[in-house]
Design brief:
The chain is α/β, with parallel strands linked by helices. Helices cover 28% and strands 23% of the residues.
Length: 533
């Protein structure tokens, strides 16, 4: 059981952290607990049954310090801490803490990206080691990054701010070198510790210098490894429900967002058919008023592709209210169905803006989930793992797909596709489902591509690179990818009679992929019968 304790009254923070652990560890795995309840009950619980208990403590207060220190010294316990620690806990850990410095504030700024270039803050999170030899030892990420203007980040992570919000660095901290896993670095100077690990004979503590931890970054994989594998035979562990289906090392899905045209996607569609790679179209319903756009969606579906709704009017922020979002979703689905006889199960957010009210409106409109996520807004929808977003309906899922393969994002120096290759490599390393997108040409705009040949060549090079990296990368259309995430998001894990029972929902279809359960040194294949660990 993952026990999550947050500061009293911060419901948003609690929901974001709990939802992130639930996406990784299954339904039934996460329990929200108050600090007062933890202090009263958990010490006695640890004395009798600690094999499966992991504490997640956000900004642990001073009154918890005696219990935490005693547990780390004498009990079998695994702890994750997000955010600031109290003075006594800091002293016990050998941590010196100070307010966020001007140097950190200045290093967090990121300018809009020029065309054919990217822009990053001077401040970076730089890992020096991982939980085992080799993992994450060379990973780094900017506090803020843009690949187009000040809108999206093709490497997929959200922004670490310095504004005191839950998405902010909590403070400046120094830790002993032997404990440090990552530092905040600018101009080759270490400005603060960001991630650290403390080991004791029967316990361990992993810390991130941010209230939400790495819920919006590939670094989340470090949390998963710590939960299911780290010191497995010595201290508590809990299974992780892998985002990558069993038997594969990576997974990829792509789409075109048809904002202004559909039929112009045909040349790229034909190329994907030749490459034997799934193809997906997200349709803005108003475009379908022209019947010449009706045929390609039918061909895409017939060839194993997918059709999604890209709203009715492409209104910013889904029209500004839950009611408007529901209307956009309902009317878009009706028009797509009338034109193609296809009923879309999933939606794509215009401009990737996905506020909570839009998710609730789409659920009311009978959608099973949506795609969005962008560094510029709605940070709670920039999720390291696909699944239920914070505060959303139980059966509604989200997937962050921030990587946009556009001509004006190709680099003008070096390898034009270097960023996209890096984005996939990060997904591959962290067992993250890699989603990328493009847009069809229109009379108004070509998204930086000089011509169709240039665009097809770039897409082909990226797919070829992915396939050469591993022959165990799964390519799925968007519907099948989201169906799998929906299925895995309803897996239930319980501690029953001294064992872990994994229950599964009904498989979405006879060809459903098996879910991978990571636990200890093993990856288990879980079918529709469930399992006991």
């Amino acid at each position: 059981m993952i026990q999550v304790a947050c500061p009293c009254g911060n419901d948003e923070l609690r929901e974001i952290v709990c939802a992130a652990f639930e996406r990784a560890c299954g339904l039934g795995s996460v329990r929200s607990i108050s600090y007062s309840e933890l202090a009263i009950n958990e010490f006695a619980h640890l004395q009798t049954n600690s094999k499966y208990t992991i504490w997640v403590l956000v900004d642990p207060p001073e009154e918890l310090a005696p219990l935490l220190i005693l547990a780390l010294k004498t009990m079998v316990v695994k702890v994750i801490v997000f955010g600031a620690v109290s003075p006594s806990i800091a002293q016990f850990l050998g941590m010196q803490v100070s307010v966020i410095s001007e140097a950190v504030i200045n290093a967090s700024v990121c300018s809009p990206a020029p065309t054919y270039q990217f822009s990053e803050s001077e401040g970076f999170i730089s890992y020096v080691k991982g939980l085992s030899e080799g993992d994450y030892s060379s990973y780094s990420r900017a506090l803020c990054r843009y690949d187009y203007a000040d809108e999206w980040n093709n490497l997929g992570f959200g922004a670490i701010t310095v504004n005191g919000s839950i998405w902010s660095l909590s403070n400046c901290a120094n830790v002993r070198q032997e404990n440090a896993l990552a530092y905040l670095v600018a101009c080759d100077e270490r400005l603060s510790a960001y991630c650290a690990l403390w080991d004791y004979p029967q316990s361990s503590l992993l810390w991130f210098n941010r209230q939400v931890g790495p819920v919006d970054s590939y670094e989340w994989r470090l949390v998963e490894i710590y939960i299911y594998q780290y010191r497995f035979s010595e201290i508590p562990a809990w299974p992780v429900v892998s985002e990558i289906p069993y038997g594969y090392e990576g997974a990829v899905t792509m789409r075109l967002d048809c904002d202004e045209d559909v039929e112009s996607a045909r040349p790229l569609y034909m190329a994907y058919k030749e490459w034997k790679a799934p193809f997906s179209l997200a349709l803005q319903a108003t475009v379908l008023a022209d019947p010449r756009h009706h045929q390609l969606p039918l061909e895409v579906m017939a060839s194993g592709g997918a059709i999604l709704s890209h709203t009715l009017t492409h209104a910013p922020n889904w029209g500004g209210s839950q009611e408007e979002a529901m209307r956009e979703g309902v009317e878009s689905a009706a028009i797509i169905n009338q034109a193609t006889e296809i009923i879309p199960k999933y939606a794509v957010s215009p401009f990737h803006q996905t506020p909570l009210y839009a998710r609730l409106g789409l659920a009311q409109a009978s959608y099973s989930g949506c795609i969005g996520g962008i560094i510029a807004n709605d940070p709670d929808f920039v999720m390291a793992r696909g699944g239920r977003p914070p505060y959303s309906e139980p059966d509604f899922i989200g997937h962050t797909q921030q990587c946009m393969l556009h001509g004006d994002c190709l680099l003008e120096t070096g390898d034009p596709l270097a960023v996209y290759k890096q984005a996939f490599e990060q997904s591959f390393l962290s067992r993250t489902f890699f989603g990328y997108l493009d847009h069809p040409f229109s009379e108004r705009y070509q998204y930086g591509w000089n011509d169709e040949d240039e665009r097809i060549n770039a897409h082909g090079q990226l797919i070829d690179y992915i396939r050469k990296l591993s022959d165990r990368v799964l390519f799925l259309n968007e519907n099948d990818a989201l169906d799998f995430m929906h299925y895995k998001s309803n897996i239930y894990i319980q501690h029953v009679d001294g064992a872990l029972k994994v229950s599964t929902p009904p498989a979405p279809n006879k060809k459903a992929l098996n879910v991978a359960i990571e636990y200890g040194e093993n990856i288990y294949s879980m079918d529709s019968k469930g399992m006991v660990l």
